[in-house]
Structure of GMP synthase (Glutamine-hydrolysing):
Amino acid sequence: MKIGILQTGHTPEELQEEFGEYSDLFQALFAGHDFEFETYNVVDGVFPEGIESAQGWLVTGSKHGAYEDHDWIPPLEDFIRASVSASAPIIGICFGHQIIAQALGGKVEKFSGGWAVGRQTYDFAGTEISLNAWHQDQVTELPPGAVTIASNDFCKNAAIVYGDRALTVQAHPEFDGLFIDGLINTRGRGVVPDDLLDAAEDTLAEPVANQTLADQFADFFRQERTQ
């Protein structure tokens, strides 16, 4: 199965030699699931020829806001709507989670409660799952027909499902503790409050459920669906 990665941002230059791009993190996350990947740098205006270019789609995280005025955001929203209409499964992570909600009629805002960085624990239908996060924006209003499937006290809509068409998560199952440490030192200091960064540093070695989410995403991509 071919998965098209819609890359909506780039990793910090200081981290690229060690970690690669966001698309590389996702390919590592899905290791063992026998997917084929192709990356489209939509943040640079590079889009697939059409929905049929892959059997499933994944929208990455980004330093940009879904509500910002960038030339590539409207065509990305058009692509998301086309994917959902065509019943091509699409998964969104962080910015991807937000832009899918916005494209389908939801609302994304800079959250007044501030930042979530590092290891966070969410209630996934009664099961506690911990994942790394790095965000200030949140989905504050769901699109019609969307259902929240994970939350915590800080992030009400931490994971959303849109029938069998789209599955999105606010946290970053592609981030391990080493990558969070890199973000703290390249994009965190002077932007995110020090107490949050210090707390995140304290949990860098604690376990996260990245593989659990990877397996769920793989199952979602592969499930049979009707037009």
